[in-house]
Amino acid sequence: MESASVAATMTVAARLSPQPWMTAPESRAVFAALAAGGADARFVGGCVRDAWLGRPVKDIDIATHAPPERVMELLTAAGIRVIPTGIAHGTVTALCGAKPYEITTLRRDVETFGRHARVEFTDDWVEDAARRDLTMNALSCTPDGEMFDPFGGLADLAAGRVRFVGEAWRRIDEDVLRLLRFFRFHAHYGRGEPDREALEACRDLAPRLPTLSGERVRGELFRLLTAPCAAAVWRLMMGQGIMPHLLPEAMDTARLERLIAVERDLGLVPDPTRRLAAVLDSDRPGALRAADALRLSNHERDRLLALVEPPVVLVPADDRRALRHGLYRVGDAGLFADMLLIAAAIHDGPLDLTMLRAALAVAEDLPCLHLPIAGRDLLALGVPRGPAVGMMLKRIEGWWIAEDFQPDHTSCLEMARGMLGSDSGRVPQSAKRE
Length: 434
Fold this sequence. Notes:
Helix content: 40-55%
Radius of gyration: 29 Å
Structural class: alpha+beta
Distance between the termini: 94 Å
Largest sheet: 8 strands, mixed
Shape: elongated
């Protein structure tokens, strides 16, 4: 086996300028703990890729040639808490302060079967990088920013080219989830025409997609849906025959594209459930099938159903009275705003963003749309306990809504007294007391 030092010399690529997450005291402490025991370590994967592009870095992953048990010893000796999150596969998590660092021992695949593989630990950085799915994910760098690029990931990043490490068909055959990861990464990092070899492999292996768990599919599709060009990539997947194996109901990319444009114009954060509702060309049963296929949470499922088949017709308009009525019936300001955005995506013709902003602002009225009177108030007026309380509250609520939610607590009490007076023949004498 080629030694780690020789492999590293062969793949030196460039230098990454110091990043706050690289120079943070917690990062330095973790690397110092490993170096104290002679363990060579580097930042790997997404943090290196995104830092090179100047994008925000979320998770920090580290690789080392030291075995996991040795990694735990070194971290513990340095006073750093360590959790054996996946020690059987070479992964531990260091908690330095409040920051987690996932540290994995270099590995090589001995045998692969689906998402799992039988691995052996190695000291060869290139062999470990060869296990990565995409060239841009095979990058690594030392704590001082020296970059290593064994498979041309930097050139692919510069060109906006999403490319598999090695043969595309073989990499997807090892784990068909990589098919979805290809499209997800193309949505977030790709430019221009997608890699032809990868597309051919995706078309060929798409029939295997139903073998994936709904949770894994949901994870990839929801990440894809947050991309600015999600509609274009979704359309690409449809053209390659991918979507019939995943979500045959999700084919309305024109509506998804309009929703993305509205979100962009309003400066809104992309929401995958809202975008899924836009692309679903289906009714409630179809949305239920999609929710089941993706193993959505109960909250996500209910929200999706409400957006696909809303209980009230909501069209962006400047009729604040009508909008407040719709908001009250929905009872959820966030869901109400989502319904308006979906309605805007369905809207045929030019959209008045000023009017839409005014409609969305109505959602802020929800805390005020609370019936000022309650059952205890009616009991205090002498309404007998039982169905009579609910019936009168419903009548008062209807009047309050018709008055555009303006009557306050005092006005509602006066209305209740008036109702008691007009209904005196139907109220028992024992209940007629102030």
